[in-house]
Amino acid sequence: MESDARGPHWTVVESGIGALLLAATDTGLVTVAFHARPAVCEAVLEGLRSRLGAEPVHAPDSARLAEPVRQLGAYFAGTLREFGLPLDWSLSSGFPREVLRELASGVPYGTVVGYGGLAARVGQPGAAQAVGAAMGSNPLPVVVPCHRVVESDGGLGGFGGGLETKRRLLELEGVLPQPLF
């Protein structure tokens, strides 16, 4: 059932790493949020209200969400290695958006990149910390694979979903971080 076309449609789905809140606009998937418990969901939905200026609509059967739900299910089942979803980038801008777009298109399944390496890819080789901040602001984790960004010594680095979640995602993809030098 398609509801109010103005606001983002959202639902919560179970995954291999716990409950995820997914939201999509008419442009595409706009957010994926980890640990989708009631308090987390309310905070994410409030953020969508203020940043998009529209009321989110709980619409688990929405056509906007059908393909993201299907593709995330296939990813966690181990049968999808590359997402082919329209994305709504309206929750990021500037340098973070540039970094996230490079990450989405340039770091394939089963590989990792260092924060500094990703900074160099966008022409800012000294901006490893800014890349870390961009990863922390990623509104589309898993689909835009910030879990694939690791420290140059092979350490996991940080992760908004928690380090155990990052480890599980990397294990799913058959990668455990190795030193990049």
TrEMBL record:
UniProt-annotated location(s): Cytoplasm
Alphabetical UniProt keywords: Cytoplasm, DNA damage, DNA repair, Methyltransferase, Transferase
Principal EC category: transferase
Organism: Streptomyces nitrosporeus
A cellular component annotation (GO) from this entry: cytoplasm
EC number: 2.1.1.63
Family, similarity comment: Belongs to the MGMT family.
CDD domains, per database record: ATase (cd06445)
Gene Ontology annotations of biological process type: DNA alkylation repair; methylation
Principal subcellular localisation of the protein: cytoplasm
Task performed by this protein: Involved in the cellular defense against the biological effects of O6-methylguanine (O6-MeG) and O4-methylthymine (O4-MeT) in DNA. Repairs the methylated nucleobase in DNA by stoichiometrically transferring the methyl group to a cysteine residue in the enzyme. This is a suicide reaction: the enzyme is irreversibly inactivated.
Reaction(s) this enzyme catalyzes, per UniProt: a 4-O-methyl-thymidine in DNA + L-cysteinyl-[protein] = a thymidine in DNA + S-methyl-L-cysteinyl-[protein]; a 6-O-methyl-2'-deoxyguanosine in DNA + L-cysteinyl-[protein] = S-methyl-L-cysteinyl-[protein] + a 2'-deoxyguanosine in DNA
Lineage, broadest ranks: Bacteria, Bacillati, Actinomycetota, Actinomycetes, Kitasatosporales
Top-rank taxon: Bacteria
SUPFAM superfamilies in the record: Methylated DNA-protein cysteine methyltransferase domain (SSF53155), Methylated DNA-protein cysteine methyltransferase, C-terminal domain (SSF46767)
Other notes: This enzyme catalyzes only one turnover and therefore is not strictly catalytic. According to one definition, an enzyme is a biocatalyst that acts repeatedly and over many reaction cycles.
Protein name: Methylated-DNA--protein-cysteine methyltransferase
Annotated Methylguanine DNA methyltransferase ribonuclease-like domain residues: 9-88
A single GO molecular function term of this UniProt record: methylated-DNA-[protein]-cysteine S-methyltransferase activity
